[in-house]
Amino acid sequence: MRKNYDPRMYILAHWAMVGLKSHKAKQSAQKKVVKVPQIGVPSQNGGGQKGAKGQMIANKKAMHQLSKTGRLKDAMNVNF
Fold first, then answer.
1. Are 67 and 61 in contact (CB under 8 A)?
2. Which bin fits 51, alpha (ψ -120 to 50), beta or left (φ > 0)?
3. Nearest residue to 75 via CA among 58, 67, 56, 66
4. Element counts in the chain: helices (H) and strands (E)
5. CA pair distance 30, 35, nearest whole angstrom
6. Percentage of residues in the chain having pLDDT higher than 90
7. HSE-up of residue 46 (Cα within 13 Å, Cβ side)
8. Residue 40 lies in a domain
9. How many domains does the chain have?
10. Domain ranges, residue 6
11. Left (φ > 0), alpha (ψ -120 to 50) or beta: where does 67 sit?
12. pLDDT tens-digit profile of 54-75?
């Protein structure tokens, strides 16, 4: 490459190295992900309520609280 003074070749070589580093990083990350155990699904029992009915009741309470206060913190509790 010493006799080649075309800047496009240097740019091409640079991006080729970036691509190779990215490919190696992706492979090492995939190896790490394979070894991680899966996380169990948390129970759906929210405060003694079961399933979708409990979520509906909690959402209704959150909407009521939001209509009373109008605070951002209460808006974050609502499941839109």
1. no
2. left
3. 66
4. 3, 0
5. 9
6. 26
7. 10
8. no
9. 2
10. 1-35
11. alpha
12. 888 888 999 998 899 888 888 8
